[in-house]
Amino acid sequence: DAADKGPYRHYMQKEIFEQPVAIMNTLDGRIKEGKVNIEAIAPNAAEILSKVEHVQIVACGTSYNAGMVARYWFEAIAGVSCDVEIASEFRYRKFVTRPNSLLITLSQSGETADTLAALRLAKESGYMSAMTICNVASSSLVRESDFAFLTRAGVEIGVASTKAFTTQLTCMLLLNAAIGRLKGNLSEEQEHHIIQSLQRLPAQIESALVFDKQIETLSEDFAEKHHTLFLGRGEYYPIAMESALKLKEISYIHAEAYAAGELKHGPLALIDSEMPVVVVAPENDLLEKVKSNIEEVRARGGQLYVFADSDAGFEDSDNFKTIVLPKVDEVTAPIFYTVPLQLLSYHIALIKGTDVDQPRNLAKAVTVE
Ligand code: G6P
């Protein structure tokens, strides 16, 4: 029963811990013989997806952040260009529709007014097709789109979105593998690798949830602070954005995310001993770049909190705390790293005593403009 908190204190906490099962549900029936079961997306999905040359994602809030992660995947995995825009901006500007462009609305509720308005506008603007990745089967977005890919996260009650985000990303990886194959941009081996990584993800997230206590201890350092900076590069930049959004929403601490390479262009001026800086830094091609950004912060007396894996080679020292997570597949790692960062915000909010499930001034679905 979705309304039953079970052993959990808050819906948000329950929904964080439900993510392994939620992702298993997202994957259920969508994989066949080590490949994406494209027909399970929609009976005519293969025909549409094979023609896609451009993807336009439109969303709000956490769903927008999921779109920002997916943009990296569309260009790297599916091999199609991709733009992502906040729905309230997209709907009020003049835009040029690219040839064979697929519009994707991303939404937990399927009822966000701006996203729905953007879909209606796009349908009159020459998009090849309008797809929604959505959590609510009976929603307006699902009804009005050409086809829907349901996230199956289950009912999400906490206003701050958690499992809706990670299941949206799971759908996005499936979609990318499908488009990549249909367009000949992805080898069979690469598709198998993505699928295997997705299948391993629920158990890996279980192993991240084990860090709950360690993250709770870390959260004590943040509760008295007024600001927090989140840094990442590549797909971890939008993961930093989502982490900053979570912290703002539920703890009321001002938080900002920056692409780590932008540090020098402004935020470095903010760094002092009162400024916690959270960095998402797993071992990958960009790690050396991230490490030099970390040094820039350290040299100015910033307090660093680094979420990484053992291969990244970080150790705790003065003003430098690490959460060393298990090494996971690179393709699914952005989804994996989301979870410990959700826990960080959750524990900071607990110390601050805010209404975690129903933060002030916010609504679960923004159905009016
Ligand atoms: C509100 C919610 C957020 C959500 C956003 C978009 O701001 O509080 O959690 O991310 O709306 O909602 P949607 O249902 O379209 O994903």
Can you walk me through this structure?
- This protein has 369 residues and is of the alpha/beta class.
- The chain has 14 helices and 12 strands.
- The chain has helices at residues 11-17, 19-27, 38-41, 45-49, 61-78, 87-90, 113-123, 140-144, 163-182, 188-209, 212-219, 236-251, 287-299, 333-352, and strands at residues 31-32, 35-36, 54-59, 81-86, 101-107, 129-134, 147-150, 227-232, 254-259, 276-280, 303-309, 320-325.
- A hairpin with a 2-residue loop joins β1 and β2.
- α9 runs antiparallel to α10 (188-209), α10 (188-209) packs parallel to α14 (333-352) and α11 (212-219) crosses α14.
- The longest helix is centred in the middle third of the chain and has 22 residues, at 188-209.
- The site of 6-O-phosphono-alpha-D-glucopyranose has 16 residues, from α5.
- Its EC number is 2.6.1.16.
- It is an enzyme of class 2 (transferase).
- It catalyses: D-fructose 6-phosphate + L-glutamine = D-glucosamine 6-phosphate + L-glutamate.
- It comes from Basfia succiniciproducens.
Give a nutshell description of this structure.
The chain has helices at residues 11-17, 19-27, 38-41, 45-49, 61-78, 87-90, 113-123, 140-144, 163-182, 188-209, 212-219, 236-251, 287-299, 333-352, and strands at residues 31-32, 35-36, 54-59, 81-86, 101-107, 129-134, 147-150, 227-232, 254-259, 276-280, 303-309, 320-325.
**Segments where pLDDT lies below 50 for 5+ residues?**
none
Any idea what the shape is?
A: globular
Strand order of the largest sheet: 4-3-5-6-7
Which ligands does the model contain, each kind named once? 6-O-phosphono-alpha-D-glucopyranose
